[in-house]
């Protein structure tokens, strides 16, 4: 196929700016597109991305109607956002991707993927689903496009269509992006054995790949470690977190994971140290919440309150309707209950996933409205997800309704999966269980 004259000019301009080396961008359809998949890169990575962005920006000045330059800039800003945690780069990626697709749809399917991925990173899941559907319509034979659509469907709680999408993807689990999404689907549906097997294999495969960014390799270790931790396998979790740090020493997600793990193990000082390293890289609300709880464990309420104020500032800068970790933190500590309840109700108008129903159920429980809590908790448990936090919430709600047998069953299940699923809440669960023995 011959290059069009405009495409050839763009290629020559970029090569000239890059000193004769062709710009290489991440294939958007080959890797996990997690909203939170970002880490701090090395100075060399930053310089490389800045140089590539400068090259394509120059090409765009020469030809403002170049769909190629616009698409490449979208991909570069997306990758830089993943690596730096800079939320503004996601918006830049979205803008460039939209401009590219306005100029050209034919032979521009990767830009559909870039746009959908960027929208999900900003928690614009309904828009992401529509874009992913367009990519599938463009070429339904490409499994990565169907995987992207399946991910958007899961985020929205469209579990029927998601199930059909994943049914067609099971034979493609050797692809890293598909395997990671399949693992999450298995976990949501209560098949933790299949989830662990899929995720361990894909993590091992990612370690052997030299053609993908190190932040993505680190992400697989983070994802596996997080699942090990949530299932009470603390030794394995620490091993995976540490392996991830060997790959990318400046990964704020992994540092946050190690902070939480250290707190669950009872070492508040170590938890604070890891959390401080993490927030030095990115002011992440989840990590701030962990550090706040670590200060509470130490009895330092003044530092905990200061952390809470910082966490609120960080939440305002996050994409999406509201931050779920922040909401759970408020509920667990009895703060702003009506506000969280109303936020949860509003989000469920468009995003009907199980964790949205869980937050709403827990907010109703905290507001002493157990019947409404129970109705929403049933929806949170609809997939059979084996999550100790979900079981804990369900157990406490059942006890509030006077259903001792059901409450006991859920609390026992939560503590059997992970006796230390949360530093404070696991203790509440144990106390509640003792009261109904």
Task: Describe the protein.
With 437 residues, this protein is mainly α. It contains 23 helices and no strands. The relative contact order is 0.07. Mean pLDDT is 88; it is low at 15-44.
Question: Which tags fit this structure?
Answer:
437 residues; 72% helix; 23 helices; mainly alpha
In DSSP terms (H or I, runs of 4 or more residues), the helix count works out at 23
Question: Average pLDDT, to the nearest integer?
Answer: 88
Percentage beta strand: under 5%
Helical fraction equals over 70%
Name the helix and strand elements from N-terminus to C-terminus, one letter apiece.
HHHHHHHHHHHHHHHHHHHHHHH
**Largest sheet features:** none
Low-confidence stretches at least 5 residues in length (pLDDT < 50)? 15-44
Q: Provide the structure class.
A: mainly alpha
Distance between the termini: 74 Å
């Amino acid at each position: 196929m011959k290059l069009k004259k405009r495409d050839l000019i763009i290629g020559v301009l970029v090569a000239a700016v890059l000193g004769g080396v062709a710009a290489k961008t991440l294939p958007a359809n080959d890797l996990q597109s997690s909203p939170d998949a970002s880490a701090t890169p090395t100075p060399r990575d930053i310089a490389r991305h800045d140089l590539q962005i400068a090259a394509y920006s120059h090409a765009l000045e020469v030809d403002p109607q170049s769909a190629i330059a616009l698409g490449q800039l979208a991909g570069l800003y997306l990758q830089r956002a993943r690596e730096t945690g800079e939320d503004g780069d996601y918006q830049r990626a979205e803008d460039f991707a939209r401009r590219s697709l306005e100029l050209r749809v034919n032979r521009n399917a990767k830009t559909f993927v870039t746009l959908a991925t960027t929208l999900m990173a900003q928690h614009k899941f309904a828009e992401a689903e529509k874009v992913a559907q367009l990519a599938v319509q463009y070429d339904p034979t490409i499994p990565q496009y169907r995987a992207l659509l399946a991910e958007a469907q899961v985020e929205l709680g469209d579990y029927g269509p998601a199930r059909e999408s994943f049914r067609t993807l099971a034979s493609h689990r050797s692809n890293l992006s598909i395997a990671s999404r399949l693992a999450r689907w298995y976990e949501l549906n209560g098949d933790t054995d299949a989830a662990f097997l899929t995720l361990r294999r894909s993590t091992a495969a990612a370690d052997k790949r030299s053609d993908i960014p190190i932040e993505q390799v680190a992400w697989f270790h983070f994802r596996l470690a997080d699942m090990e931790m949530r299932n009470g396998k603390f030794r394995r979790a620490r091993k995976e977190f540490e392996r991830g740090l060997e790959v990318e020493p400046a990964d704020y997600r992994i540092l946050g994971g190690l902070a939480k793990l250290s707190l669950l193990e009872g070492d508040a000082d170590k938890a604070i140290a890891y959390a401080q390293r993490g927030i030095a890289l990115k002011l992440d609300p989840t990590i701030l919440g962990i550090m706040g709880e670590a200060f509470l464990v130490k009895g330092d309420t003044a530092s905990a309150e200061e952390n809470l104020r910082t966490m609120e500032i960080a939440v305002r800068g996050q994409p999406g309707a509201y931050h779920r970790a922040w909401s759970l933190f408020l509920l667990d500590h009895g703060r702003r209950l009506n506000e969280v309840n109303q936020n949860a109700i509003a989000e469920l108008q468009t995003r009907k996933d199980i964790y949205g129903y869980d937050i709403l159920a827990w907010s109703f429980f905290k507001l002493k409205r157990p019947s409404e809590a129970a109705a929403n908790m049933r929806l949170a448990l609809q997939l059979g997800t084996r999550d100790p936090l979900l079981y804990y919430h369900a157990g406490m709600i059942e006890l509030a309704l006077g259903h001792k047998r059901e409450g006991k069953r859920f609390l026992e299940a939560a503590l059997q999966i992970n006796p230390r699923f949360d530093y404070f809440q696991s203790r509440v669960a144990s106390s509640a269980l003792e009261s109904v023995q």
